[in-house]
Every structure is written in C-alpha cells, then in structure tokens.
Amino acid sequence: MISNLLIKKFIKNSSDTKSKKVRERYGYLGGIVGGLVNLILFGIKFTVGITVNSIAVTADAFNNLSDVGSSVVTIFGFKLSGKPADKEHPFGHGRIEYISGLIVAFLVLLVGFEFVQSSFDRIKNPTPVEFSFVPFILLLVSILFKVWLSRFYKNVGERINSSALKASGVDALSDVVSSATVAFSLLISRFTTLPIDGYIGMVVSAVILYAGYNLIKDTLNPLLGSPPDEELVESIEKMLLDYEHIGGVHDLIVHNYGPGRIIASIHAEVPLDISVVKIHEIIDRAEKEISAELDIYLVIHMDPITTNDKEILAAKDDLTEALKAVNVVKSFHDFRVVGEGENKNLIFDVVVGSEHILKKDEEIKLQKEIDFQLKKVHPNYNAIITVDKDYLDMKLNK
C-alpha cells in the first residue's frame, strides 16, 4: 500500500517501465527510501546498542549503516547507467547498474568480516548486557521497518527488473533475520549470565557474510554472461516463426549490456527458391517489429534450405532417424547434401547441450558415432559435421 503510494506520488508515468527515464526514477526512489529508512534504523540500533552494551545490536546497527552506503551506490549506479552510448561505450553504460550491485555486495561482506572479529573479542572478553524494555521494543519496531523495506525493494525491483534493487531486497530480508536474532539474544540476556551476546554477534555476522556472498553471485553472473531469460528466448522464436516463409530458427545468441540494452542474433531458415528481394523484406520487417515489441536489438541471419526436393528431404529424414540413437544431440541445422548418385555427403551442424562440454577428441568421437549411426540407416551417406553448443540450453526447432 505505502509502496504504491510512493510510486504514484514520485514517479510520473510509473507504468511505462520500458522508458529509461521512468526506470531511472524508480532507481532513485528505491535508493532514497532505502537510505532514509536505514539511516533511521542505524540511529535506533546504535542508541540501543550503546545503552544496553550489546555488541550484537551494535553490529546490526552498522550493518544498517552499510546499507545507507549501498543506497548511495545504487543511486549513483542508476544515474551513471542511464548515460547514453558514446565513442568508448557504443552499447551504453547499462552494466554499471550490475557493478553498483557488486559494490553493495562487497560493502556487506566488509561489515560481516568486521563484526566476526568484534564478536569473537566479545566471546573472549565477555561484558554483561543490560536488558531494558524500551530498547527491546525499539528493536522489534526496527524489524517491522526492515520487513516493509524488503517488500518495497522487491516491488520496485520486479517492476523494472533491476538486479541492484532485487539484491537490496534480499539484503533487507537477511537483515530481518539478523535483527530478530539480536532481539532474541537481548531477551535471553535477561535470564542468563552466559556471553550470549558474542555468540549471537557471530550468528549475525554469518548471516551478513552469507547475504554478501549471494549478492556477489547474483550481480556477477550478468557481468560474466548469464543465460538469457527463458521467456525472452521463447518470445523471439515464436514471434519469428509467425512470419511467412520462415520455417525454423536456430543459433540464437543474446548479449546483455544492461537492463533495456539487449542485443540478439538468430538464424532463420527460409526457402532456397524464394526471391531474395521478397525474403529480405520479410526479414527486415521482422527485425524491426520484434525489436520494437521486445525492446531489444535483433539481427536475423538468413539460412536458405531446400523445401521441395524429395531426395534432400528423404536424406534429412534419414539423418533424423540416425540421430535418435545419439542422446547428446539435441537438434541439427544448416543441412545440405553434396554429391550425385548414391554416394552423398550430408553436411550439417549438431547442437549439444551445455551439460556436455566436449574436448576436441570427444567431438571427433561424437562425429564418428553420428556417421556410424547414419550409415546404419543409409550405407552410402557420409556425415560432415560441425558441433555446436546450445548456449541457451533449450531445444531449438529443427
């Protein structure tokens, strides 16, 4: 409720999340709200920590202070990622958003390591924790703040598909766990003289470190090149196959240069005997329409195939039958037949799933196995094979 009110009040045209300006405003809102809430929580927890002499509460307070820094990084990340393309960065600056998420993750880790040491010192040199009812209530209130902030980040992050804001949401949720643990330790300290504060501080530090590790993993993957969204892949293929004369697609590759900056290339199978001018017009129209619809930049390569030669189609059927015995092959494409009479070379590419990382000798072994299976179906065929890897890990149309 409050999240939607903030969005409606501070973001004009909030439903137009494909707009870079609107997306930037969402990022600013997320960073500013997160920074203010965490600054308030730091003040509350630091005061409580000093009042009751608790290292666990103080650690939790400085965890919130690091989140303020994270919010500042997020704001600058959205600002810089929104810069237009230039000579040095022809595909824009969108990946800066991922880098800002990575900086947030390292800040979280730094706080975690600092309080591992502080908590260990408290275990070695225990100091009594003084329970007080009012500070305990303040801690419970701070937990409710964090629950709301986590949901706020999640809402905003999902609206604009922002890895940085989603990461902040996960971080806020881990803070809920750590704060609840700290509140529990403060309550327990009322009934025992054991140095529970230091041990709980170690638990909080472990939660912080684990959150930092997950944040690094989530923000590093798109920088290194993670698989594209399955829904995007299916949309590109389905939309392209709806165009006249396009009978199949393969070799789809998607490059992510930041949110809203996706470049994709794909091969489209078209009839060999169609007019070049006509099929070029269809391909050109498909590129423009699909790019506009999905907010990407799509490049389509034409692969001419035979659609009415009975001999070639029969050879293709024979290859399809032979490949049923080779489990690692997911599909084949770029099929051609060379030669006259009974003896012919079948030239084609096979797609192997990414779970099968083949070395050169293993590729040769696979090629020989396919050729062997093909000769069982038709003894006079020779297979000339190129092995492709399926980077999308999805079955493509043959």
From TrEMBL:
Cation efflux protein cytoplasmic domain: residues covered: 228-304
Alphabetically ordered keywords of this record: Membrane, Transmembrane, Transmembrane helix, Transport
Chief subcellular location: membrane
Record flagged with keyword Lipid biosynthesis: no
PANTHER family, per the entry: MITOCHONDRIAL METAL TRANSPORTER 1-RELATED
Domain Cation efflux protein transmembrane: 32-224
One of the record's GO cellular component terms: membrane
Cellular compartments annotated: Membrane
Gene name as annotated: fieF_3
Source organism superkingdom: Bacteria
Organism expressing this protein natively: Clostridium magnum DSM 2767
Transmembrane segments: 26-44, 98-116, 128-149, 196-216
Family (UniProt): Belongs to the cation diffusion facilitator (CDF) transporter (TC 2.A.4) family.
GO molecular function: monoatomic cation transmembrane transporter activity
Name this polypeptide is given: Ferrous-iron efflux pump FieF
Membrane topology summary: Multi-pass membrane protein
Pfam annotation, one family: ZT_dimer
